[in-house]
Design a protein that fits this description.
- Two copies of one chain form a homodimer.
- Chain A folds into two domains: 196 residues, Quinone Oxidoreductase, Chain A, domain 1, CATH 3.90.180; 134 residues, NAD(P)-binding Rossmann-like Domain (Rossmann fold, 3-Layer(aba) Sandwich), CATH 3.40.50.
- In chain A, strand 12, helix 9 and strand 13 form a beta-alpha-beta unit.
- Helices cover 30% and strands 25% of the residues of chain A.
- Chain A contains twelve helices and 17 strands.
- Chain A starts with a strand and ends with a strand.
- The relative contact order of chain A is 0.16.
Chain lengths: 338, 338
């Protein structure tokens, strides 16, 4: 089979790789129906994370089950499945608490920009749809495997509740999905921070009620203006830089909550500042597995359409162009089809 | 009147001071019935915070109302009152959200180790009891004004729930009150981290089910041993040092919560570590005013007895000895009576 391999920052190649095989009884192998490039894939692509040796890329996927190990009984060959970027056995203490992304047997997916994918912990990771979905639903089901699940987690971690005010920091695919999540969870007012016209437009279509283009202290002041001077109930931090975290923490009111889902890079939070803010803070890799059944239902029923974050679709063998387009901000998110 | 003044680290004096007066229509002046020395008073006493010029000390108090300003209608002269160390108007947006310790008109109390005290924002800060309490209840009512309210907040910020497991980091007065709070809020298992026999004993009497004497990695390993390998649902951080914060964050399970109420000194939290822990974190000065009616009821009904944290009672004019005894760890907490 063939798949994407990163050799160095800026250098992603589509290469012949060994076909994946069942190596443990809890494995499955799926044939990729769609995969994509994640904002977090850009960290190594941009040299912000080291690339010590060439390695495959990709952690988002939907596909058709090809083969399962002997202990995989919930899904079977031929089924269309959605999984999480973090695999989980769904039976350990952390899974039972609903924190499957901290499964004691977790393995992060990292080989999904390929024709076929081995899924570890397949028994606790994959969720099959009743029937094969129509092609127009595939992008949204793919989004559920990471960005929509992550936006959902951001909104839950930020404790978005009916009638509350939410701020979304970051207008990438996760931030835009965070707008969907805040809307679904009942926020009355959703303030999206974005400076890009096309993303502002999509945020508004997803349910944002206000757009703030300013950043830093000006952005914080604008949020305060819109929230009675005290800040928002909930803030979704969907970037992962020191600037975005500062923006988020200062946009929340005392007693409010920040859910942070952008993998933090060189971020640290000063204890006394967090203390006097009285803001609650929770982040992490989203426990997407917990949300999969619900989010798949919302997609299949047409209630949400997070697949709209894909504004570029390419054949899988043009994966390198997908990275380039996202790096150059010509695309929010690139979907890849084998 | 007379009151405590700190002149330099280690130098607290009991001096003649100007009598407090009503300076705003929302003020009250109370005659002190009891006050005390707080763990946080030891920061400047030990030189960990600067003492730029001599200033009065003390922020915990119960007393009898002497005089009220024209806008103070809820309490009247002659009543016994309990208040918070953070004053609040109880009408601003933050107060209405239940975060009175971030009141837009907040003033922190700082002159309470004295015969008489001016209370700013008295209308939204003081809660009167129906009648004058008997003397044996005074220490517990005094505790409610700060350490019991703060332990309560730590337990709520750590989301202690019926049946949960809670760890309390810190065996000072706040930590011990945190044990009471965890018990009242229904925790099944309460693990107190303490190396002092007398404090261990009091923690057990307050409801702790386990004591851990180890600290650092050993202490964390012991918590994991007692919590199925994953950590506790809730951790109350009641110290405020880098070591105690690390202890707390590593003692919580993925998806668990840390409530931190020790004012952080040189503490910073690394973003990626917090991210992958998936631990929720909330701290701050406790919104004691929100809890006052409930906690006063629990004291008056005999349900809780946080006044037991006072293991030294002195005449107010011996306030310097109170500081010394706490600094030398001869006392957990010193109560002072004019």
């Amino acid at each position: 089979m063939r798949g994407a391999v990163i050799h160095a920052p800026g250098d992603v190649r589509f290469e012949t790789l060994a076909d994946p095989k069942i190596s443990r009884p809890t494995d499955a192998v799926i044939r990729t129906v769609a995969t994509c490039v994640c904002g977090s894939d850009l960290w190594p692509y941009r040299g912000a994370e080291p690339v010590d040796e060439p390695h495959p890329m990709g952690h988002e996927y939907v596909g058709i089950v090809e083969e399962v190990g002997s202990e995989v009984t919930d899904v079977k060959p031929g089924q269309f499945v959605v999984g999480s970027f973090a695999t989980s056995d769904n039976t350990c203490a952390n899974c039972l608490n609903g924190w499957q992304s901290s499964c004691l047997h977790r393995e992060f997916m990292s080989t999904c920009q390929a024709d076929y994918i081995r899924i570890p912990n397949a028994h606790g990771t994959l969720v099959a749809t009743d029937e094969h979905p129509s092609g127009d639903l595939v992008p949204s089901l793919l989004a559920v495997s990471d960005v929509m699940g992550t936006g959902w987690y951001a909104a839950l971690a930020a404790e978005v509740r009916p009638g509350s005010t939410a701020v979304v920091v970051g207008d990438g695919a996760v931030g835009l999905c965070g707008v969907i999540a805040a809307k679904e969870l009942g926020a009355d007012r959703i303030i999206a921070m974005s400076r890009h016209a096309s993303r502002q437009k999509l945020a508004l279509e997803f349910g944002a009620t206000d757009i703030i283009g300013e950043r830093g202290d000006e952005g914080i002041a604008r949020v305060k203006d819109l929230t009675g001077g005290i800040g928002a109930d909930s803030v979704l931090e969907c970037v992962g830089t020191p600037e975005s975290m500062r923006q988020a923490l200062h946009s929340a009111r005392p007693g409010g909550n920040v859910g942070f889902v952008g993998v933090p890079h060189e971020v640290s939070v000063e204890g006394q500042e967090l203390f006097f803010s009285q803001v609650g803070l929770r982040g992490g890799p989203a426990p997407v597995r917990r949300y999969l059944p619900d989010l798949i239902d919302r997609v299949l029923s047409g209630r949400i359409n997070p697949g709209r974050v894909f504004d570029l679709t390419l054949p899988l063998d043009q994966v390198a162009e997908g990275y380039r387009a996202m790096d150059e901000r010509r695309a929010v998110k690139a979907l890849l089809k084998p």
